[in-house]
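Example 3.2
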Amino acid sequence: MNRRSRKVRSQENRILNAAEAAFAELGYEGASLRDIVARARVNLPTVYYYFRSKEGLLEAVFRRRFGPLREEHFELLRQKDAQAGGRPLTVEEVLEAMLLPPLRMAAQGGASAPVVMRLIGRIVSEPSSRTQTLLRQLHADLREEFLQRLALACPHLTRAELSWRVICLWGALGYLLGHPQRVLEESAGQMDLRRPDAALAQLTGFFAAALRAPSFNHPNWASGIPS
């Protein structure tokens, strides 16, 4: 990489770091390009040159931060398919592929970890229409892949019931990832996301039970919870 390329990469990363921090602190709607350029110590035309718009900048932030996570999800699914030898994956196997990558990310720490966790918290607690639309576009195929695998593992559920349960799963996970210190304090130190294996075991057990719970179309629901 020549000197000019290094300068361009450094400038892009500085803008992305500033944007990530601003979106995490203020939300997408609350963060202005003026605030971002001040944090990045660049001028506004430079941001437009690299990213075209505020929405383009948000997409670049998401791709940089969550793109590797997406690839890790798919790689785990490929590994589990190979191990399964042609049989459908179990609920627990699909859940591990869903949960382990973000739990590992939360446990890694590093200078950027608090900002990333706050960004996730913002996405969950203050979802703007632009943010949610972009997330759906970037991860639609991955979410559909998980839904299809879980549909095979949970044939007793309708597509609507499965969607309800999976969306609640993502919401709960987003809350945990977005507020790790609050979760640690409210659990008196018992729920520590810096221990991904322990977190994975607890969450897998909880979500697997929810997914295996009977369908609300079960004929015995009218007279009480079916056995």
